[in-house]
C-alpha cells in the first residue's frame, strides 16, 4: 500500500494557499511523514467525504471520527510540538470541512485533507518564524541577557527594557508563563488535559502581553 | 484533548461546513442575477414587477437547492442556463410577431423544445437511467426563466420547453438506458 508523505503533498495544489518554494522545500526536506491508514479506513474516508460533499449531513460523524486522528497525527509529526500540532490540526480540520462542498470526488480524499493540513503546518511554521524574528527577539534577549551580535547590543538593551516594562504590566501568573515560554521550560508536560489548560493560559497571557505592548509602544 | 473540546471542535467543523456550503451556494447568484436582470430590463414595463418577483423566487430556490445538495444542486446551473433560451425568445417575441403570429409561435415552441431536450439529455448524462432529481430541478428552473420571458406575450416557449423535456425523458425512461452524449 503506498504511503502518503509530505514530499508527495507538495504536489497537491490547494486554492487560497500561497507558500514560498523555500518553505515547501524545508518542509519536504525536514522528514518524510508516513500517514498510512488501512485500506479500509482510506476507503471509508473516501466514501464519507464523497457523501458529505454531496450534502448528506449524516456522513459527518464517521468522517470526523476517521479524519481527526489522522490530521492530528500528521501535524504532530510535522511540528514535534503537541500544542502547535493541535492548533494546526484544528485549523486544518476546520478548513477541510469549510471546503468540503467544493471537493472533487475524483481526488483522493485523505490526500486532499492532508494537503490542507500540510499547508497549515507551513503557515504555522512561517508565523512562528516571523514572531521569533519580530517581538519574540526581545523576549529571548530578556531571558538570556546575551544579545545575538555586538552591534545589536544597544537595540537589544532597549528592547529588553521595553519588554521588562511590558511584562511588569502583566499579572504575576502571566509573567511566570511568559518567562517559562522563553526558557522553553513550559510547565504542564503531564496529561493531555493539563497541556490543554496550560496552552490556553499561555495563549491568553500572550494576548495580554501583545495588548500591553501595543498600548505602550504602538505596534508589536 | 478532552471530550468537551472534541465536541466543540465537531460543532465548529459542522458550522464551517454549513458556512462553506452556503458560500458555494451563493456563487450561483453570479449566474442567476444577470439572467434575471436581463429578463427584467427587456420585459415590458407592465410585467417588470412580476418578473422581479419570479427572479427573487428563482434566486432563493437556486441558493436553497445548492446549499441542500444531495443531487438537487447539480441541475440548478444547467437549468438556469437552459432557461435563458426560452426566456430570451419570449422577450423578443413582440419583434417576431411582425413576421407573423404562426412564425413567432413556431420559433418560440422550437426554442423551448431545444431547451427541454438539452435538459433531459443532461439529466441522463451520468446515470444509467433518467436522473429524476436533475430532470425535475433543471426543468423547474428553466420553466421559471421561461415564464419570466413569456409574461404578457403568451407561453409558447414554456410549452415547448416542457414538451421537449417530457418527450426526451419519456423516451429514455421507455428505453431504460440512455445513449451516451458522445454517440
Structural account:
The complex is a heterodimer of chains A (220) and B (183). Chain A has 220 residues and is an all-alpha fold. Chain A has ten helices and no strands. Chain A is elongated and about 60 Å long. By secondary structure, chain B is mainly alpha-helical. In chain B, 78% of the residues lie in helices and 0% in strands. The interface between A and B is medium-sized, with 21 and 20 residues.
What tags apply to this protein structure?
heterodimer, A: 220 residues, mainly alpha, elongated, B: 183 residues, 8 helices, disordered C terminus
Low-confidence stretches of chain B: 178-183
Mean pLDDT of chain B: 84
Strand content of chain A: under 5%
Total DSSP E strands of chain B: 0
Biggest β-sheet of chain A, characterized?
Answer: none
Percent range for β-strand residues of chain B: under 5%
Averaged pLDDT of chain A: 74
Major sheet description of chain B? none
Structural category of chain B: mainly alpha
The shape of chain A is elongated
H and E order of chain A: HHHHHHHHHH
Poorly predicted regions of chain A: 1-32, 185-191
Structural class of chain A: mainly alpha
In total, the number of strands of chain A is 0
**Percentage of residues assigned to helices of chain A:** over 70%
Give the gist of this structure:
The complex is a heterodimer of chains A (220) and B (183). With 220 residues, chain A is mostly helical.
Q: How is this fold's topology laid out?
A:
The complex is a heterodimer of chains A (220) and B (183).
Chain A lengths: L5 H4 L11 H10 L8 H15 L6 H20 L2 H18 L9 H25 L1 H10 L8 H16 L3 H11 L9 H26 L3
Helix pairs in contact in A: 3-4, 4-5, 4-6, 5-6, 7-8, 8-10, 9-10
Chain B lengths: L2 H24 L2 H14 L5 H21 L7 H16 L1 H5 L3 H23 L8 H19 L5 H20 L8
Helix pairs in contact in B: 1-3, 2-3, 2-4, 3-7, 4-6, 4-7, 4-8, 6-7, 6-8, 7-8
Amino acid at each position: 500500500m503506498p504511503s502518503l508523505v509530505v514530499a508527495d503533498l507538495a504536489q497537491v495544489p490547494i486554492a487560497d494557499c500561497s507558500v514560498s518554494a523555500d518553505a515547501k522545500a524545508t518542509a519536504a526536506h525536514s522528514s518524510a511523514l508516513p500517514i498510512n491508514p488501512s485500506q479500509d479506513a482510506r476507503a471509508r474516508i473516501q466514501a464519507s467525504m464523497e457523501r458529505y460533499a454531496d450534502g448528506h449531513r449524516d456522513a459527518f460523524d464517521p468522517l470526523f471520527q476517521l479524519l481527526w486522528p489522522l490530521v492530528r497525527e500528521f501535524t504532530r509529526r510535522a511540528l514535534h510540538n503537541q500544542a502547535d500540532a493541535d492548533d494546526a490540526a484544528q485549523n486544518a480540520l476546520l478548513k477541510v470541512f469549510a471546503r468540503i462542498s467544493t471537493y472533487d470526488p475524483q481526488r483522493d480524499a485523505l490526500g486532499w485533507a492532508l494537503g490542507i493540513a500540510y499547508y497549515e503546518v507551513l503557515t504555522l511554521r512561517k508565523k512562528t518564524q516571523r514572531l521569533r524574528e519580530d517581538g519574540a527577539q526581545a523576549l529571548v534577549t530578556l531571558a538570556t541577557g546575551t544579545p545575538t551580535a555586538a552591534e545589536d547590543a544597544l537595540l537589544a538593551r532597549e528592547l529588553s527594557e521595553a519588554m521588562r516594562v511590558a511584562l511588569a504590566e502583566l499579572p504575576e501568573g502571566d509573567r511566570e508563563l511568559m518567562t517559562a515560554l522563553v526558557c522553553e521550560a513550559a510547565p504542564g508536560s503531564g496529561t493531555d488535559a493539563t497541556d490543554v489548560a496550560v496552552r490556553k493560559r499561555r495563549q491568553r497571557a500572550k494576548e495580554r502581553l501583545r495588548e500591553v505592548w501595543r498600548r505602550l509602544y504602538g505596534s508589536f | 484533548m478532552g471530550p468537551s473540546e472534541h465536541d466543540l471542535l465537531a460543532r465548529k467543523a459542522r458550522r464551517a461546513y454549513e458556512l462553506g456550503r452556503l458560500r458555494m451556494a451563493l456563487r450561483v447568484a453570479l449566474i442567476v442575477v444577470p439572467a434575471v436582470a436581463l429578463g427584467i430590463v427587456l420585459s415590458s414595463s407592465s410585467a417588470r414587477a412580476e418578473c422581479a418577483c419570479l427572479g427573487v423566487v428563482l434566486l432563493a430556490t437556486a441558493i436553497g437547492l445548492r446549499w441542500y445538495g444531495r443531487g438537487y444542486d447539480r441541475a440548478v446551473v444547467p437549468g438556469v442556463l437552459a432557461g435563458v433560451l426560452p426566456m430570451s425568445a419570449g422577450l423578443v417575441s413582440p419583434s417576431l410577431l411582425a413576421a407573423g403570429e404562426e412564425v413567432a409561435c413556431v420559433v418560440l415552441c422550437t426554442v423551448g423544445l431545444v431547451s427541454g431536450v438539452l435538459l433531459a439529455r443532461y439529466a441522463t448524462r451520468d446515470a444509467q437511467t433518467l436522473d429524476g432529481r436533475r430532470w425535475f430541478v433543471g426543468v423547474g428552473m428553466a420553466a421559471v426563466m421561461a415564464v419570466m420571458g413569456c409574461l404578457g406575450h403568451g407561453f409558447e416557449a414554456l410549452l415547448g420547453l416542457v414538451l421537449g423535456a417530457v418527450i426526451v425523458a419519456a423516451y429514455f425512461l421507455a428505453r431504460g438506458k440512455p445513449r451516451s452524449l458522445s454517440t
